[in-house]
Structure to design on (256 residues):
DNA sequence: ATGCCGTGGAAACCACGA
């Protein structure tokens, strides 16, 4: 069972590439972020024609998350991260698929730091931590996939010294990620590839893709009970090289 | 050191991204 995460950077603007990737890699579950489309403009007809069912949470212009499933129905369990009724941003959706609780998330960017956007990011991560405690207590097997906007370690960025003050690499944010793994959540990519330099994002400018000046900010985390089932993982790097590509590449895991 | 590119939405520029 393949579960993938892909920040599409505009689901309608880049639909062609999304469909090409789905057809090519056929993930059983695909978590999408940055739909940049309101609820009524999600391209559900094209997604269904490609063989997928979907739940999604849209938003005009920004954010937006979706879970696509193949040969299975997604049973929605939550839309919106609990803990702040005033938070209107579409960054979180959750569903049960084939006995696994799938969480699709798009963590706030947080720049500039310090500032209100960084405060929102830290508060959001705090809320996520609390939600994950609940999910852990429920005993359900959980896969958490998305754009975390967190560079976990120096190994995950082409030049760490350039990113020290950035909201993706600030100590508070790295600590939040480390707290998750310390709590038992498994960084699936690192579990299987501890020493490799792996990126999932390359900026559009400064020829970042050509120079392989990337970041690892898209992650798949597993509840500890799923660790024995983790049979493979990867980043579909070539997708970043397609014409009119998103600035992120898809990341995926395989569960046996 | 830097939105240099790219999106969506509104309005021929803006906010936002990482």
């Amino acid at each position: 069972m393949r579960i993938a995460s892909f920040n599409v950077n505009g689901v309608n603007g880049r639909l062609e590439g999304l469909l090409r990737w789905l057809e090519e890699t056929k993930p059983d579950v695909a978590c999408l972020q940055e739909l940049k489309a309101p609820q009524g403009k999600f391209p559900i007809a094209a997604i269904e024609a490609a063989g997928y069912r979907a739940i999604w949470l849209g938003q005009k212009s920004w954010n937006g998350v979706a879970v696509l499933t193949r040969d299975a129905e997604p049973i929605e369990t939550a839309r919106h991260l609990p803990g702040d009724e005033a938070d209107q941003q579409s960054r979180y959706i959750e569903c049960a698929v084939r006995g696994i609780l799938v969480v699709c998330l798009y963590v706030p960017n947080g720049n500039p730091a310090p500032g209100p956007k960084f405060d929102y990011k830290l508060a959001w991560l705090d809320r996520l931590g609390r939600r994950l405690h609940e999910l852990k207590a429920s005993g359900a097997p959980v896969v958490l996939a998305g754009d975390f906007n967190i560079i976990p370690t120096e190994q995950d960025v082409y030049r760490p010294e350039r990113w020290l003050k950035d909201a993706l690499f600030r100590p508070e944010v790295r600590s939040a990620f480390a707290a998750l793994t310390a709590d038992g959540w498994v960084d699936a990519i690192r579990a299987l590839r501890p020493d490799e330099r792996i990126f999932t994002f390359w900026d559009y400018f400064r020829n970042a893709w050509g120079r392989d000046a990337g970041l690892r900010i898209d992650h798949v985390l597993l509840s500890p009970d799923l660790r024995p089932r983790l049979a493979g993982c990867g980043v579909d790097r070539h997708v970043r090289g397609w014409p009119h590509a998103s600035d992120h590449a898809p990341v995926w895991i395989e569960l046996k």
In short: The radius of gyration of chain A is 17 Å. DSSP finds six helices and 14 strands in chain A. Helices of chain A lie at 15-25, 44-49, 116-138, 171-182, 188-192, 208-211.
